[in-house]
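Me: I keep going back and forth on a fold encoding question. No explanation is needed for now; the record alone will do.

Assistant:
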Amino acid sequence: MYILCSDLEGVFVPEVWINVADKTGINELRRTTRDEPDYNLLMRSRMKILDHHGLKLNDIQNVIAQIRPLPGANEFIEWVKERTQLIVVSDTFIQFADPLMKQLGRPTLFCHTLVMDETNRIIDYKLRQPDPKRKTVEALQGLTYQVIAMGDSYNDISMLKQADVGILFRPPQNVVDDYPEFPVVTEYDELKTILKRILL
């Protein structure tokens, strides 16, 4: 039996941090896992930038409240759920994700947690576990699932490598160049075509 594990940002919704950068004018926040392979380095850098500019959790949540799913995302999710199970495996945080998941019909989400101080300043974050995307796939395979995984960024690669089928969805060219072994898909209809072949 197959199960689908998918990234969130860049696949179903726009990149949160790019939206924050656009709303605040802080261009340094445009850097994402599409640019930086080291997630911990990226997050430490983000927290320093937020501190420098005096931004707190509610400032980011206010931006997220305006984000809408990518065109076609909801239809694709419903199409998948009629055929198999979907788990969204993301390096976002539960404090960010709720309004996004509500709009997507609340598929199952595995993600991380932020730590705030008494003033709502982000002071740390807690990963679910090291290399959580790959370990999610590994755990599902231990339950005798075959796993299809899709994502767009460097932080998705270990998940795609572990999966029985790995797909890059709308990745930047640098990720395509670094990992040419994965098929590249740019539209949900193309994903449906691939999934139909696997799931039937």
About this structure: The chain has one domain: 2-16+66-199.
